[in-house]
Automatic annotation (TrEMBL):
Transmembrane segments: none annotated. Residues 116-284 form the Integrase catalytic domain. Residues 398-410, 444-460 have a biased composition (Low complexity). One of its GO terms (biological process) is DNA integration. Residues 372-397, 430-443 have a biased composition (Polar residues). Residues 372-489 are annotated as: Disordered. This is Gag/pol. It comes from the Eukaryota. Pfam families: gag_pre-integrs (PF13976), rve (PF00665), RVT_2 (PF07727), SH3_retrovirus (PF25597). PANTHER family: GAG-POL-RELATED RETROTRANSPOSON (PTHR11439), RLK (RECEPTOR-LIKE PROTEIN KINASE) 8, PUTATIVE-RELATED (PTHR11439:SF455).
Length: 1016
């Protein structure tokens, strides 16, 4: 407490005294300066002090303060500034600056490795390189190296995919351990996921991995990449070798690296305790002349041909020689070299050339294995070599050391591309091997050129990038002629073979077909049908009127088992000359939807109805034309009386733009006259309710399915159609639109075995190695993924054919949808993914969708979405499966048209897509007279989308969604649909949105009713 006497302030201040306090203010600004409370005339002053640190006794700043003042430099810089300028500093201990520790974190220096190996294979370093920007001539994109820490000896293996690492390591381990009689103790890698299976597969090996993003800890393998690539590029530049042969050069470079001193030590010498033989080495890319006499068809052919030396064979004692004319690689020990000529330089195929890009965009070709061994010859001097073509020294050097030609592991791999060329039979050949010129006898693996273990070696490898450019392999035996064989061969069998082959082949021209009786008969049958139908009348050629031409089209009609049913010749008008608005008006003609077919078949099977199949012969010829169309008389069947007349068409003809529509209108009018009604939800479905009996007719152009609850009405319907058209009753449903229908004890199995087999045969993959899933997990395809595929037409053709296969194979819907997104510019990676799908179908040819014979009339569906699954545009993929009772009748895998900002939005859009399908199915079933047991139920595994379908509680986050998507909520509010939550483990449509691992995929495939055709 202090007592203050109030006096007049000499300063410009105003003091105001109240009963309880006194206030002092600035006279000019009226700013309060002091406020003091008073009690009984005493003024109370608050003497609480601010206890923040103050330096009253010293004005010297600490080292940390100067560090902060100078902007957080290093400690040395801070002390240098303080000392050189004699700044006032307390010189106390410098403490760690946490801000600098966070902002200046960096890679610490690496100390030299202290571990020293004392024996081979004690430590093995490994790393994977790739993907290469250019696919190699043999289809490789990666390679893996193994470096022995003790000797620095290197092994290299080439791969098409990273997933081959564990398989290659198992082979490498078995061979080197057997050869060196010691085991691998430690494997050091960079910790890549491709090495993870090795840890579980070989627990006895210590697997050491480097820290994440620290490749320096795997320095031996990393530096080996640089060593290999630098030497390879130097050799390729020197000889102008195209980049597509990088695997050949890399293999040869590793062969050389193992024989070059490093720190005065040669890896080969350390490992085998002897010096390598350098006399066998030649300049890579130079011209060479391998002995090709075993391939000659007669004795007067040249015994060699100019080739390019690519390197040293990894599995034989021979040189690898590339024939630039046929793109074949010959492996031979009898080779003459001209090291002054480099053919690639003469052909101007340098490192960056069009040849490289063609290879990069070409499909990966398989290895073509044959033999090129020296023919048996008696003892004596070796065969004379060809005369040199240059004044420079030319040498001939057989490989005589087995240790210099190290054995390559034979890896059983199925080529990615199954395009094969049959090779000539390989006869046993006795080969004389000259005496070795060195004492090297050790054999060890240095590189991998995978080949099948049951195929002969040495090997002849086809580097041709396109099947169309491949030439037949040269014969491996001498030509056998009638003169040499002294026999007279009859022509009867060969004529029969030629005739049989021609009958199995569909003619391309009229002249080809006219030379065979079966096709002449087929054309006569077609003209007879046209005459009976009064398709045209012959009239003089009109003036100023277009006259269409025509052509014959030939097709072999086959039974479901693939055998020939009949030969069909079709006269087709060249409608591409027609002009819209003049020669035709409307062309649209509906066909029945696949979902409608499955719904009707599900109803028929659950109701035990009879299902009949019909075929209308020459269907398009029944359509009536409303336009005036003239056509020239068909080739080969010109009326001799009126050779200059033309055909005035009264009926539609195949090839005319309006022909499909004219036929459908004709058939539709006939069915309506029989008492049928066209469906409002599928115009190609015709419904009849006769005295309470149901009858359904499904129409797909000229293929018709008839079913109903009264067999007598079904028979009457077929009879009525027969009175109007040339209808062929095919009996019980068995083969419809390329779909085989197999009745089993469980129901009706729909498969496309023949269709898929024909597709696999067309791409030469019928004998390819099957895989268990249609798409590998972890594979992310994008539009810029890899080099462009050189045959986009083939890619589009295959994917288009696979889209039709999804009619009975819901298990491939997602994969086909994904691959269909790259039709414009497919890459090699997309083609590889397509071939994987074909390999999956190769192993599941007999699989199809089963329609159970016991089912209920209830609709339940599953909806799912893969949020932002596309890395190109971040759009999501919608997928749904709709069941009618136990039977899957509709499914879809579709990329969403817009980007979703959340998983809830993506799932909700998928719900909307599924809801439209359910609503359409509900209307269709009502029209068919099928009463629903309960309202449809839609299952979704996203809680947010489920709640959003019932109420607008998430409006703040979903107000940007289009209004039309909210009709899902309207359906729920009208009590026409239930949307319920289901856990992700039970979400059946998961298979429609993403690739899945094998157990999950097989589980969901079974839930989709996809089963094998061998059902009992």
């Amino acid at each position: 407490m202090s007592q203050v006497t109030l006096t007049t302030c000499p300063l410009s201040c105003l003091m105001m005294e109240e009963i309880s306090y006194t206030l002092e203010m600035d006279l000019l600004t009226k700013t309060p300066l002091l406020q003091v409370h008073s009690i009984n005339g005493l003024f109370i002053l608050n003497l609480n002090l601010n206890h923040s640190p103050q330096a009253f006794l010293s004005n010297r700043a600490s080292t940390n303060v100067w560090h902060a003042r100078l902007g957080h430099p290093s400690i040395a810089t801070t002390l240098e500034v303080v000392n050189s300028n004699k700044l006032s500093c307390s010189r106390n201990k410098f403490s760690l600056c946490h801000d600098c520790a966070q902002a200046k974190a960096h890679v610490l220096p690496f100390s030299p490795s202290s571990s020293v190996s004392t024996s081979p294979l004690q430590i093995v370093h490994s790393d994977v390189w790739g993907p290469s920007p250019i696919v190699s001539s043999q289809g490789f994109r990666y390679y893996i190296t193994f470096v022995d820490d003790y000797s620095k000896f290197t092994w290299i293996y080439f791969m098409k995919q990273k997933s081959e690492v564990s398989h290659i390591f198992s082979i490498f381990k078995a061979q080197v351990e057997n050869l060196l009689d010691c085991t691998i103790k430690t494997l050091r890698t960079d910790g890549g996921t491709e090495y993870k299976p090795i840890t579980n597969q070989f627990p006895q090996i210590l697997h050491q991995t480097s820290c994440p993003y620290t490749p320096q800890q795997n320095g031996h393998a990393e530096r080996k990449h640089r060593h290999i690539i630098e030497l390879a590029l130097a050799n390729m530049s020197y000889a102008s070798i195209p980049l597509k042969y990088w695997d050949e050069i890399f293999s040869s470079v590793v062969f050389l690296i193992n024989r070059l001193p490093s720190n005065k030590f040669v890896p080969f010498t350390i490992l085998f305790k002897k010096n390598p033989n350098y006399s066998i080495l030649k300049i890579l890319g130079c011209q060479c002349f391998p002995l090709t006499r075993p391939y000659n068809s007669h004795k007067l052919e040249l015994r060699s041909l100019p080739c390019v030396f690519l390197g040293y064979s990894s599995s034989q004692k021979g040189y690898r020689c590339l024939d630039l004319q046929t793109n074949k690689v010959y492996i031979s020990r009898n080779v003459t070299f001209d090291e002054s000529i480099f053919p690639f330089k003469q052909n101007k195929q340098g490192l960056i050339s069009s040849c490289d890009f063609v290879s990069a965009h070409s499909p990966i070709m398989p290895l073509q294995i044959s033999s090129i061994q020296q023919a048996h010859q008696p003892s004596g001097p070796s065969q004379p070599t060809l005369e040199p073509t240059s004044q420079q020294p030319v040498t001939t050097a057989p490989l005589s050391s087995s240790s210099d030609q190290l054995l390559s592991p034979q890896i059983n791999q199925t080529p990615i591309s199954a395009t094969r060329i049959p090779s000539a039979p390989v006869h046993p050949i006795t080969t004389r091997t000259p005496a070795a010129s060195s004492s090297d006898n050790t054999v060890l693996t240095t590189s991998s050129l995978p080949s099948s273990s049951n195929q002969p070696t040495p090997q002849q490898i086809d580097h041709t990038p396109s099947p169309a450019d491949q030439l037949p392999p040269a014969p491996l035996h001498s030509m056998t002629t009638r003169t040499r064989d002294q026999t007279r061969k009859t022509r009867v069998f060969t004529d029969f073979v030629a005739h049989h082959a021609s009958m199995e082949t569909e003619p391309r021209t009229f002249n080809q077909a006219n030379s065979l009786p079966a096709w002449r008969q087929a054309m006569a049958v077609e003209l007879h049908a046209l005459a009976l139908n009064k398709t045209w009348t012959l009239v003089p050629p009109p003036a100023n009127q277009k006259v269409l031409s025509s052509k014959w089209v030939y097709k072999i009609k086959r039974k479901p088992d693939g055998t020939i049913d009949r030969f069909k010749a079709r006269l087709v008008a060249n409608g591409f000359h027609q002009e819209e608005g003049v020669d035709f008006m409307e062309t649209y003609s509906p066909v029945v939807r696949p979902t409608t077919i499955r719904v009707v078949l599900s109803i028929a099977m659950s109701s035990q109805w009879q299902i009949k199949q019909l075929d209308v012969q020459n269907a398009f010829l029944h359509g009536d034309l409303t336009e005036t169309v003239y056509m020239a008389q068909p080739k080969g069947f010109v009326d001799p009386t009126f050779p200059n007349h033309v055909c005035l068409l009264h009926k539609s003809l195949y090839g005319l733009k309006q022909a499909p529509r004219a036929w459908f209108l004709k058939l539709s009018n006939a069915l309506v006259s029989f008492g049928f009604k066209s469906s409002n939800y599928d115009p190609s479905l015709f419904i009849s309710n006769h005295n309470g009996h149901k009858l359904f007719v499904l129409v797909y152009v000229d293929d018709i399915i008839v079913t109903g609850d009264d067999d007598k009405l079904v028979a009457e319907c077929i009879e009525q159609l027969s009175t109007q058209f040339a209808v062929k009753d095919l009996g019980k449903l068995h083969y419809f639109l390329g779909i085989e229908a197999q009745f089993t004890t469980q129901g009706l199995l729909l498969t496309q075995s023949k269709y898929l087999a024909d597709l696999l045969n067309r791409v030469n993959m019928i004998n390819s190695k099957p895989v268990l899933t249609p798409m590998a997990t972890g594979v992310t395809l994008s539009k810029d993924d890899g080099a462009l595929f050189d045959d986009p037409h083939l890619y589009r053709s295959v994917i288009g054919a696979l889209q039709y296969a999804t009619l009975t194979r819901p298990d491939i819907s997602f994969t086909v949808n994904k691959l269909s997104q790259f039709m414009h510019d497919p890459t090699l990676n997309h083609w590889t993914a397509a071939k994987r799908l074909l390999r999956y179908l190769c192993g599941t040819l007999k699989h199809g969708i089963l329609i159970h014979s016991t089912s209920t009339n209830t609709i339940h569906a599953y909806s799912d979405a893969d949020w932002a699954g596309s890395i190109d545009d971040r759009r999501s993929t919608s997928g749904f499966c709709v069941y009618l009772g136990r039977n899957l009748v509709s499914w879809c895998a579709k990329k969403q048209p817009t980007v979703s900002r959340s998983s809830t939005e993506a799932e909700y859009r998928s719900l909307a897509l599924t809801c439209t399908e359910i609503k359409w199915l509900t209307y269709l079933l009502e029209e068919l007279g099928i009463a629903m047991v309960s309202k449809p139920c839609l299952w979704c595994d996203n809680i947010g989308a489920t709640f959003l379908a019932s109420n607008p509680m998430f409006h703040a986050r979903t107000k940007h969604i289009e209004i039309d998507y909210h009709f899902v909520r309207e359906q729920v509010a009208d009590n026409k649909l239930d949307v319920k939550f289901i856990c992700s483990a039970d979400q059946l449509s998961d298979v429609m949105t993403k690739p899945l691992p094998l157990p999950r995929f097989q589980f969901l495939r079974g839930k989709l009713n996809v089963q094998c055709g061998t059902l009992a």
